[in-house]
Amino acid sequence: MSAPTSASPILDVLQPLLPDLSVGALLGFATGTALRYIGRVVLIVLGGLFMILQLLSYFELVSINWLKVQALTEPWLRQGGEQGLQWLSRVLMANLPFAGAFSAGLLVGLRARV
Fold first, then answer.
1. Element spanning 9, H or E
2. How many of the other CB atoms lie within 10 Å of CB of 17?
3. Could you tell me which residues come within 8 angstroms of residue 113 by beta carbon, excluding any fewer than 6 positions away?
4. CB count in 10 Å sphere of residue 27
5. Domain ranges, residue 107
6. Reduced to 3 DSSP states, what percent helix, strand and coil does the chain have, rounded to the nearest 5?
7. pLDDT, tens digit (0-9, with 9 covering 90-100), for 57-100
8. Of 5, 76, 91, 108, which residue is most buried, by most CB within 10 angstroms?
9. Looking at the domain assignment, is residue 6 inside a domain?
10. Is 32 helix (H, G, I), strand (E, B) or coil?
11. CA distance 1 to 91
12. Does 18 map to a domain?
């Protein structure tokens, strides 16, 4: 008797990788979805803080020097914007053998409407 031949040699190559790819994609999707929701919460908190500061300023309880705030935060925000994405990708994909599937799942999770 001869051994059964598979339908596709590509399937033979990919079959051992499927568990890593599926787990990586699932974890990437979950991480992307979580980041999207956490980002919304952070933006709501920042918006609420800004409204409270503006309300206090309107009633002249505090005085805010917005030019000074901008001068203090601009270098930090510029540096964080340039390095933040690189840092986040390093942290999320450290020691992952399925980084490609994770990255694809992360992008889908960030864009999904769940």
1. helix 9-14
2. 13
3. none
4. 18
5. 23-111
6. 80, 0, 20
7. 999 999 989 899 888 888 877 776 667 777 777 777 776 667 77
8. 108
9. no
10. helix
11. 52
12. no
